[in-house]
Specification:
It is a single chain. By secondary structure, this protein is α/β, with parallel strands linked by helices. It has one domain: P-loop containing nucleotide triphosphate hydrolases (Rossmann fold), CATH 3.40.50. Helix content is 47%, strand content 11%. It has 11 helices and 6 strands. Strands 3-2-4-1-5-6 form a 6-stranded parallel β-sheet, with helices on both faces. α5 links the parallel β5 and β6.
């Protein structure tokens, strides 16, 4: 099982939208996916209450540091990808999730507040990696990008981040009415009636390209890729306390 953690220490960055789009897109391709809702606002949990279909990913809420390792261990038996929507807190649960993630995505809009929230998330990722003495794969996801944003402006933002040696996903998530409609009505982009979501075709294409980028990062390195730093601790029957390992 592969784990993707999505976090920004500022609300409204697009992390919950990214979590849902990734999970539902992969599920639509036949992957077995689970969603972990660590955000106190519980938008993913509310979405699942609207969507009763067994075709969509299950959502697990009330995540705690004590219960997370056992939950992931159970999910690993029949789940291909677990997507974790983290809260905006720089706490032990976030640190643990980063250490258990094969990839951490940090959504970022073009604002100073978002940049500060992203910076705090990346600092915590680096802190966990240093304590674990193992790398945590991470990348910036440009999110809520205007569909009429100048290509030159987007390219400049990406070049600036990469010049600072920050990995950036090639595909930004564009602001789409269809994404909001999925939260309002349940289901996925593939099942959303055209009357509810504006230009659904473009939204589906954007989500598919985003998922392709994530899979490419997860697959990078092939069989030689390193597992998440805390994964062996989590899936070992006898293990040290993960909360202590996260922030020792």
């Amino acid at each position: 099982m592969r784990v993707v953690g999505i976090a920004n220490m500022k609300g409204g960055s697009g992390k919950t939208t990214a979590s849902l789009l990734l999970a539902t897109e992969l599920a639509g391709r036949g992957e077995t996916v689970a969603l972990l809702d660590c955000d106190p606002q519980g938008h993913l949990t509310q979405w699942r209450l609207l969507e009763r279909s067994a075709d969509q990913p299950p959502v697990f809420g009330n995540i705690t540091t004590a219960g997370l390792p056992n939950l992931l261990r159970r999910l690993s038996e029949n789940t291909g990808v677990t997507v974790i929507d983290l809260s905006g807190a720089s706490d032990v649960l976030a640190a643990m999730c980063f250490g258990l993630s094969d990839l951490v995505l940090v959504p970022l809009q073009g604002s100073a507040m978002d940049a500060r929230g992203a910076s705090r998330a990346l600092e915590l990722v680096r802190y966990v990696a240093q304590n674990a003495q193992a790398p945590v794969r991470q990348a910036i996801l440009l999110s809520r990008v205007s569909p009429i944003a100048a290509t030159r402006s987007l390219r400049h933002a990406i070049e600036t981040l990469r010049a600072a040696r920050v990995q950036v996903l090639d595909t930004p998530l564009v602001e789409r009415g269809a994404y909001r409609a999925v939260f309002d009505h349940g289901g996925a982009l593939a099942t959303l009636p055209a009357a509810l979501g504006g230009n659904i075709a473009n939204a589906r294409c954007n989500a598919a390209q985003f998922a392709d980028d994530v899979l490419a990062m997860l697959d990078a390195g092939g069989e030689g890729r390193k597992p998440a730093p805390f994964s062996s601790l989590c899936f070992r029957q006898s293990r040290p306390d993960l909360a202590d390992a996260a922030l020792r």
